[in-house]
Amino acid sequence: MKRSLDRKTKIALEPRKQPRQQRSSKVVDRILDAAQILTREQGTRTPTTLAIAQRAGLSVGSVYQYFPNKEAILLELARRWLSSFPEVIRKRINVPRPTNRDEFRREVRKLFIDTSRLYLDNVTLMPVIEAISGNADLRPIQDEYDKEIIALYAAWLQHVNPALEEKTAKRLGLVMMEVGHACRLVGLKRDRKTFDLIEDDVEAMWLALVNPYLNLD
């Protein structure tokens, strides 16, 4: 994707129509599920619209009713990937508050297991995610989710320590998000062993960063 898109190109990447009925939503899900499976199977090769349609059990015309091209499908997959993180973080807020550092460490480990799976299962989408980050026209897509993720990290920290100021919690949440994402991208570009080691390093950095603010024994 180009670093700066003109209006025509930007429009061309948007879904042609938003599903308003349950049947339409199911068709879109079939398209996205098929595209996701193919991207995992084909690695660095981008699946064609025809291949996506065949895997979804649809005609190419049916796919084009919702997406103008394969790039728009990948962009929608990236949106789906980004939208999965808030739900994972909310799970940690909705459990009983940890009362000591060992309990909090276990909660962090659970979060890392869940979020690591999101990265490992969607490794072929990372070039799309990086393209979004580096493109002025597409960056708002990621910014929207980033703000939500930072707010949820802050809410999680305040769940652990209700006395923690919101400004401080959001600053910590920003660091948690940015460091976690950047380091995982590095790990994904290496190999699974390196990814796992980097995960352990990021977890240690997170704990060192936030423990002084959590008032846990």
UniProtKB/TrEMBL annotation:
- List the residue ranges of the region (Disordered): 1-25
Which residues lie in Basic and acidic residues bias regions? 1-17
Superkingdom per UniProt: Bacteria
One short Pfam name that applies is: TetR_N
HTH tetR-type domain location is 25-85
Where are the coiled-coil regions?
A: none
GO MF, one term, reads:
DNA-binding transcription factor activity
Query: SUPFAM superfamilies from the entry?
Result: Homeodomain-like (SSF46689)
Keyword Lipid metabolism part of the UniProt annotation: no
Which keywords, in A-to-Z order, does the entry hold?
DNA-binding
Quick one: signal sequence residues?
none
Q: Which sections of the sequence are annotated for DNA binding?
A: 48-67
**What PANTHER family does this protein map onto?**
HTH-TYPE TRANSCRIPTIONAL REGULATOR PKSA, HTH-TYPE TRANSCRIPTIONAL REGULATOR RUTR
State the protein's name.
TetR family transcriptional regulator
Q: Which organism is it from?
A: Rhizobium loti (Mesorhizobium loti)
